[in-house]
Each structure stands twice: as C-alpha cells, then as structure tokens.
Design brief:
676 residues, mainly alpha, Actin-binding Protein, T-fimbrin, domain 1, 0% strand, IFT81, tubulin binding, cell projection, cytoplasm, IFT81_CH
C-alpha cells in the first residue's frame, strides 16, 4: 500500500497535474477531495469528465465514473459482493477503492487517453432486434457499422504511419546527401567534357553515342511491347480455349437434351435457389443476427468473475429443469387428443431436416465442382505456360504419333546435316584463326605506319563507325521484320476471332431465346415473391400483435401472482400477531400468578416501575451533588493552590542546595590555593 501511494504521489506531482503532495498530505485528503482528484485524472484522460463534482449529484458522479471505467476496461478486484462494495466506496470516496483506481489510471495515462478517444467512435449503439426489422433502420445500422470499420482501418494506418514515418531531420539529411551527390556528378560531367574536348571529332562521336543510346532505349521499348503482345496473345488463346470448351459443353447439352429437359433443369435450379433464398438463408441469417446480438450484449457487459459464471450456470440449470417440467406437462396434457397431429408434426420435421441436409449436400457438391473446375483451369494454364497442351483424345493421340514419326525421320536427316556442318565448321574455325593472326600482323604494321605519319587511332575510329552503322542497319532490319511478323500475327488473330464469332452466332441466338424465357420466369417468380412477402408481412404483423397481447397477459399474471404472495405474507404476519394477542389476553385474564407474570403487560409494568425507582435515586443523587458542588469546587481550588505552593518550595530548596554545593567547591579551591 505504501509503494502504491508513493507511485500515485510521484505521478500527481509531475506533468500535467503539477500537484505538491507528499505521503502525509495525500493520505489526509477528505473523501470529497479524493473524488475531485479522481475526477481530475479522468478529465485528463477524457476532457468531457473535467467537471467540478460539487455541481452534480453523488449518484451522477458515480454513474459517470463507472461508465468511463467500464469503457477503459478497469476490473475491480473481488467477487459480486465486492463489486457492490466497490460501487458504494466510489460513491462515499473510500480510500481503499479510490487509491487502486488512481494507481491503475496514472500508470497508463497515454494508453487510456487513446482508448477513451477511440471509445467515442467505436462503442457500438445497441439497437433492439425488433427495430432492425425496419429496412431504413437496418440500412442506417449497416452504414454505421461500415463507417466504424473504416474508422478502425484509418486509425490503424495513421498509427503505422506515425511509427514508420521519417522525421524531418532524416529528410533534411537525405536532401543534403542528394545535393552533395548532385554536385559530385556535375563535377564529374565537367571533367569528362574537358577530357572529350581533346579528342578529335568528339562532337560526331557524341552524336553517334546519343543515337546508340536512343536506339537501345527504343530496342528495350520494342522488346517490352513484344512481351506485352505475347502476354496478350497468351490471354487471347486462353479466352479462346475457354470459349471453345463452353461451346463444346453447350453443343453437348443441346445434342443430348430437349427443351423439356432444359426447362425441367431450370425449374429444379429455380426451386433450389428459391428454397435457399426464402427458407434456408433467412433462417441462417436470423440465427446469425441473434447470436451476434447476444455476443454484442455480452461484450458490452463488464467482465464476469467465477462467481458470476457459477450463478449463471445454476440459473441455467433451474430454467432447463422448469422447461423440461413444462414440456412433460404439455405432453401429458395434449397427448390423447393430438396424437395424429404429433405424428404428422414429427414426419414434417423429419422431412424438413432431410431437405436441409440434402440442400447442404447439394451446395457442398456445387462448391466442390466449382473448385475442381478452377483446378482444371489452373492446370491447363500451367501446361500452356510450360509449353504443353490439353489432354488428348484417342484420335488426336494417333495423329500425334504419326506426326512424331515423321518428325523422327526429319530429325535423323537433320542430324546428318548437322554432322556435315560441324566438320565444315572445324575447317572454317581453323581458317578464321589463321586469318585473325594475319589481321593482327597487318594491324600492327598499320599502327606503326600511323605513328610514323602522326595519325594514330584513325583506323580504329573508322572501324568503330563502320561497326556502329552495320549494327544500326541490322537492328533496322530486325525491327522491320518484327513489325511485319506482329502485323501478320494480329491479322491472323482477327481472322480467327471473326471465324469464331461466325460459328458462335447460332448458339448465341438460341441463348438469347433461353435468356428471354428465363427473364419471363424470373418476372413471374418476382410477382409471386411479392405476393408471398405481402402475405408474410400480414402474418408477421398479426403474430407480433398476438405476441404483444400474450406478453401483456403474462406480465399481468406475474403482477397478480406477486400481489397474491404479498397478501398471503401479510395474512400470515397478521395471523401471528393475532395469535400473540390471544395468548397475551389469556395470560392476563388467567387467575394463576405465574401465568400473569408471563404476560407482556406485566413484564412492561415491572420494567416501568424499576425505571421509575432508578430515576428517583438518580434525581436524589443529582440533588446531593448540586448541594455540595460549590464547597467541593472551593476545596479543589485550595488543593490546587497548595500543590503549587509545595512545588514552589521544592524548587527553592533545590536551588539552595545547588548554591551551597557551588560555595563549598569555591571554598575548597581557595584552601588549595592557600596551601600552594
């Protein structure tokens, strides 16, 4: 406790409170001052709570503090009884309650300030479930939840930016470093310019280098365009393959089915979807909404202790037992008359459960089929990326084997040609080596002649220029060929797309008719759904009215039952009082003295007499004291004066003894001097 008070005093003496407390002054604070200090600390965390508690009622102060402590997730120690004591101590300003709260708040002020700020926007308003049935209220509630989620995300991004953001000093250092690098680069450029100016024909060489750089950039952009065209071609082929697969499936469906079977499949799918939309999904949504409502209500409540859980478990057991008893009574009451209806109800419940199970199995099968289709599509995409193709049929495999045999024959012939070319390549390589040696010797002779004539480097520069021009011409030829190939490829793709469009035209026409039929069926379904919704709304209104009436009757029944119990208790108490009065009357009228003594009247009479005698004795004693009071006071004063006199004499005697001892010491000192 001492360490806790020490921490509280240290925190209060610092910013932003600037109190001048010590342990003694803090411990001597009144309850009202402690409450005001707690309110000031809460006001520092949340400015709305910076109020003077003298201007509001104690109940309002306690409620305000308890609400903010609940938002800040403060957990008081102890069980349920301790929680009630905590509330009472907060109202009365008890030190045992306020000191731990102050210690907890002052240790995490910054964190709690952020939590209080977020609570203004993230504490969700509880909307009753019956209000959420209104579409307008539901839309506003959904918009409110979306805004809350957006605020959460923005706050997280803000915190991350605050943590990961660069400071101004770092930015300035980066700018200064970049400026230094800029100056160094400018100096290097100047030095290179000076070095280049000494070279002959430097302007032409710079122009050639610039053109080379531009051509390289153009080459890179063309390569990038080529890559983009390849990717577009690949995606186009994939779309084409998917369209072909869909075409095959639709042709297969058209070939193997009739309009009656298609309509039957559509009706089955519509029935299944209507069952999902009208029965299963609304039921699941209601259950989810109910569970979410209870979870939100549970989150909004304060933290529960083990004692709360035990009490809730016992209450749940009691309610379960009561429900079982009511169910047994209902079965006993309605079993003879409703045996047939109960059998039909059981059959209907079994069929509905089977229907739900089959719907779930069908939904799972559809999800599995869609996932398998996605996997097949991914595998086909991977096969195309690796240069592969789709899975071959038997005829396609035979064609593939025949093509493979012809390619094997061609491969053998080409291998013989490669062997001949390899032998010729060896001869040419040797010839190239001899020519390179001669070229080196000639080059050395040429350099020697250039040095003699004073034009060294002329041949090298001329060769470089010729090489650059040759490279440029080759690149122009390659670019022209690439553009021609790309234009031809685009023409082929356009032709293929036109062919596919022409082949898909009749299928699209049939599909339009089917779509028109589907739209008519959908419109009919919407009309029936509107009729169903109106009927359901009327029934829901009647049901809610009946529920309200039943609720009112149940409340009236509970009120009458409580009145009956109250009257019954009053009756029992009056009967007990009447019985006591009869016994008292019987004892008072009884001729026996022992019985009379037991009577309450006799007991109270005897007590009254005793008290009267005691009062007489006390009054006599008071009279004697009054008569002797003056004399006694005079005597007491005389004794006090006598005591003072004796004390004065004692002091005088002590002073005389001290003076005599000092005189004797002086005389002995004089005698010693005389002897010396």
């Amino acid at each position: 406790m001492g360490d806790q008070m020490q921490v509280i005093v240290e925190k209060l003496n610092q910013e932003p409170f600037k109190k001048s407390y010590n342990l003694i002054s803090f411990d001597s604070l009144e309850p009202l001052q402690l409450l005001q200090l707690l309110s000031d600390v809460l006001g520092e965390i949340d400015p709305k709570h910076a109020v003077d508690i003298r201007e509001e009622l104690p109940e309002q102060t306690a409620k305000r503090m308890l609400n903010l402590l609940g938002i800040l997730k403060y957990k008081p120690p102890g069980t349920v009884s301790d929680l009630s004591a905590f509330r009472q101590g907060l109202v009365t300003g008890s030190k045992a309650v306020i000191h731990p709260v102050l210690h907890w708040l002052l240790q995490r002020t910054n964190e709690l300030r952020t939590r209080a700020y977020l609570a203004r926007f993230l504490v969700k308003l509880e909307v009753p479930a019956e209000f959420l049935q209104d579409d307008t209220v539901a839309d506003f509630n959904k918009q409110y939840e979306e805004l809350m989620e957006a605020f959460k995300n923005l706050h997280k991004e803000h915190e991350q930016l605050k943590i990961s953001g660069l400071s101004t000093a770092e930015i300035r250092r980066d700018i200064s470093a970049m400026e230094e690098e800029k100056d160094q680069l400018a100096k290097r450029v100047e030095r290179l310019k000076k070095r280049v100016e000494t070279v002959q024909n430097h302007q032409r060489m710079l122009e050639i280098a610039r053109q080379l750089r531009l051509e390289k950039e153009r080459e890179e952009s063309l390569a990038q365009q080529k890559q983009e065209q390849k990717s577009q071609l690949f995606h186009t082929e994939q779309r084409l393959q998917r369209a072909q697969v869909q075409l095959k499936e639709m042709q297969h469906m058209v070939a193997d089915s009739k309009p009656e079977s298609l309509m039957k499949k559509l009706e089955e799918e519509i029935n299944f979807n209507s069952y999902l939309v009208n029965e299963k999904i609304p039921r699941e949504m209601e259950s989810k909404k109910t569970s979410v409502y209870f979870l939100q209500k549970l989150v909004a409540e304060p933290a529960m202790t083990q004692a709360d859980l035990t009490a809730l478990e016992s209450e749940i057991e009691e309610v379960t037992a009561q429900m079982n008893q009511l169910i047994e009574k209902r079965i006993i009451t309605y079993e003879p008359t409703d045996s047939k209806f109960s059998m039909y109800r059981q059959q209907a419940s079994i069929i509905s459960r089977k229907k739900e199970a089959k719907a779930e199995e069908l939904q799972a099968a559809k999800e599995e089929m869609s996932s398998l289709e996605k996997q097949v599509e991914q595998r086909n995409t991977q096969a195309h990326g690796l240069g592969g193709s789709e899975v071959l049929t038997e005829d396609e495999f035979k064609q593939y084997v025949s093509r493979l045999r012809s390619k094997n024959t061609l491969y053998k012939r080409r291998r013989q040609e490669v062997a001949a070319i390899t032998a010729e390549y060896g001869i040419l390589q040797r010839t190239e080596e001899l020519l390179r040696q001669r070229h080196q010797a000639t080059q050395q002779q040429l350099q020697a002649i250039e040095e003699k004539k004073g034009i060294s480097g002329y041949s090298y520069t001329q060769e470089e220029l010729e090489r650059v021009s040759a490279v440029k011409s080759e690149m122009d030829e390659v670019k022209g060929q690439t553009l021609d190939n790309m234009s031809e490829m685009v023409k082929k793709l356009n032709a293929m797309v036109a062919e596919k469009k022409a082949s898909l035209a009749p299928v699209i026409k049939e599909l339009r008719q089917l779509r028109q039929t589907c739209q008519e069926l959908t419109q009919e379904r919407e009309e029936k759904k509107m009729h169903y919704d109106s009927c359901a709304a009327g029934l829901e209104t009647n049901r809610s009215a009946l529920e309200q009436e039943v609720k009112g009757l149940l409340e009236e029944c509970a009120q009458e039952e409580s009145n009956y119990r109250y009257i019954n208790c009053m009756k029992r108490s009056l009967e007990v009082q009447l019985q006591r009065a009869k016994e008292e009357m019987k004892a008072y009228v009884s001729p026996e003295p022992q019985e009379r003594r037991r009577a309450v009247r006799e007991q109270y009479t005897r007590i009254i007499l005793e008290q009267e005698n005691l009062g007489k004795k006390l009054r006599e004693k008071q009279k004697v004291v009054r008569e002797s009071h003056g004399l006694n006071m005079k005597q007491m004063k005389m004794w006090q004066d006598f005591e003072k006199l004796m004390e004065c004499k004692r002091e005088c005697f002590l002073k005389q003894q001290n003076q005599a001892a000092i005189g004797q010491i002086i005389q002995e000192g004089g005698k010693d001097r005389l002897v010396l």
